[in-house]
Amino acid sequence: MDNTTFNSTFNSSTNGTNGTSDGLPPPIPKSFWTNLLLPTLYLIIVVGSLYTFSTLYRKSQLSKTARLEPWFPAHRQRDIYLSLLHLDPSEESSAGDDEKKLKRVPDSVLKAALMQRALEDIRRIVQLRSSKQALQTLLQRGSVGDELWQRFLRAEQEMEAEVKDVVNEANAFAPNWGQVIFQSANEMNQNLLIKDRMKELQDKLESEKAWWEKKKAGIQSNFLKEHGVEDDVKSEDTAAATVAKPVEKRPGSSDEEGILVDVDVPTQSQGAGGSTKKKKGKK
Amino acid sequence: MEGPETFNQLSLSIDPSTKALTSPDATLASEINDLNQLHRILLTLDTPNQIPAPPAPVNPKRSVQIGKLRESGNAAYKKGTFPEAITLYNLAIRMASDRPGWEASGLVREELSALYGNRAQAYMAQRQWAEGSVDAECSVELKRVGNVKGWWRRGSCLREMGRLEEAAEWVKSGLEFERAGPDKGGVGELEQLGREIEKGLGKS
């Protein structure tokens, strides 16, 4: 009895080994590749996501800087200059003008346009320099956001590129003009400022003259009234004639210096005599 | 500002005979005007390449002419013919202002400051205080330090016109500038004017 059970177990176990010893390699490589698949998949996912993230982030940064509002309004003189460079007047010459057709825009016009461009650049540079300090202070105190500072930095960079561009263009017209052009443009700017200021001051001349005439008439009528009331008719007539004018003008002058008008009459009569003697020597 | 590679193409056209620029765009009118004027001036230049000369060594022709006009103005003033002096000074001022823009602005300042000052003096001799005060103000505006005469002239014009407070303030700021300046002798005169103005103010 024991023998049979032992035999049957022995048989079955050999049967089992007999079954497995028949099939060979395939099942083992299948699980090898599947084992390799998972890590590769993982690596692909990780690297892929990192790459996607970095490209998307860079794109968003670029678009953010592109959306930054420019610091200055459009640079007109630069546009004029570049439009002239690309202009082809021979295309547009209308009928009937066959003696003087331009093949291209003449150099002198381009030079003038370049000088105007340099002038505008100088103005912008001066503006940037003067606002830099103030902007830094505001930024430190936290009154303005970072975006303003970014816009400012971008404007500075663009300005430098623009200056280099202008110098190169100038050198193309004449040797070494690049160094000189910005000096000339600076002087032009200063001279224009001087002219504007002088015009401002000289424009005040009209109002000053009118004010002084009013005042003189007022003082004269005062004088006449004080001293010429009991005299002959002639002085009365003149006093009456001049009374009409100052009556409407005295309110005007007395608004500002009412006290002075009365007190100044005696000083004015003294001053009139005294000042003629006070002449400064001429240069 | 657009990027370095881009620009706005503007609609410009150039007239072949006069070589003047025109544009249908009305907003560009002033810039186009300036350009055309500058272009005309450039065409008259006789430097090589028709390029504006560097600002440093200035062509002395114009300065000599201005100097001559100023001398004749001074002579007329000494003779006592003030209207003639004023006309001569006007001419000199116009000549100095019409200098091409790229010549040294410092020189322009000096010339104009002296000319306005002399014209102010001529106006004062004719007791035209308003014109004198404006011209003296221009002179000081162009040259604040070392210009005692300018400060003094406007101060006395204001005083003659009865504007004593303005005159007092003016003289005070003039003294601040001139005390730091080279002309210490002139400061004394300005101080005296200031004292006289104070006296006038004190009385009222």
Automatic annotation (TrEMBL), chain A:
GO terms for cellular component: Sec62/Sec63 complex. It comes from the Eukaryota. InterPro entries: Sec66 (IPR018624). Residues 1-21 have a biased composition (Low complexity). Keywords: Membrane, Transmembrane, Transmembrane helix. One of its GO terms (biological process) is post-translational protein targeting to membrane, translocation. The chain crosses the membrane at residues 36-57. The keyword Transmembrane applies. Residues 1-25, 229-283 are annotated as: Disordered. This is Translocation protein sec66.
Automatic annotation (TrEMBL), chain B:
GO terms for molecular function: Hsp70 protein binding; Hsp90 protein binding. Residues 180-204 are annotated as: Disordered. This is Translocation protein SEC72. GO terms for cellular component: cytosol; nucleus. It comes from the Eukaryota. GO terms for biological process: protein folding. Residues 192-204 have a biased composition (Basic and acidic residues). InterPro entries: TPR-like_helical_dom_sf.
